[in-house]
UniProtKB/TrEMBL annotation:
UniProt protein name: Immunoglobulin subtype domain-containing protein
Localization of this protein: Membrane
Signal peptide span: 1-17
GO cellular component, one term: plasma membrane
Top-level division of the source organism's lineage: Eukaryota
């Protein structure tokens, strides 16, 4: 559901660098997978999940050139131009993240997403693309 919606949106609105959901609501203790779509020129670059509100001060949780282990996993589908980050055993402090493409000898590119961690049942999350009159909202269910 989510991947198809994001691909459709990217065809319609275009990709500038990295695109993902803006906000995800997930139940504490559950796992969530977030697709991060990227421009074809970044196919051979290292992809990363960085944790923190400010990009300049975030901490890398996992990279595609690292051995994935622990709560954070990452995989890169170079054919589809999407890397997927998975956060297992979500905790209340898991709120601010960045999907990042590592640029050698240049400024990395990335996009921020926020997680709202709940204690009850899973809620729906929304993908918002565009601003103002061009804003479009799509709802799907969390895992």
């Amino acid at each position: 559901c989510l991947l198809l919606v994001l691909f459709w949106l990217l065809q319609r609105h275009g990709v500038y660098s990295v695109t993902t959901v803006t906000k995800v609501s997930v139940k504490a203790g559950d796992s969530v997978s977030i697709p991060c779509l990227y421009h074809p020129k970044y196919t051979s670059h290292v992809k990363c999940l960085c944790q923190g509100y400010y990009y300049e001060f975030c901490s890398y949780a996992v990279k595609t050139n690292w051995q994935s282990s622990g709560r954070f996993l990452i995989s890169d589908d170079r054919e589809k131009k999407v890397f997927t980050v998975t956060i297992k055993d979500v905790r209340e402090g898991d709120t601010d993240f960045w999907c990042i493409v590592d640029i050698n000898r240049g400024r990395d590119v990335g996009t921020y997403f926020q997680m709202s961690v709940t204690r009850g049942k899973n809620r729906t999350w929304r993908t918002v693309v565009g601003t103002g009159a061009a804003e479009e909202i799509y709802r799907c269910r969390c895992r």
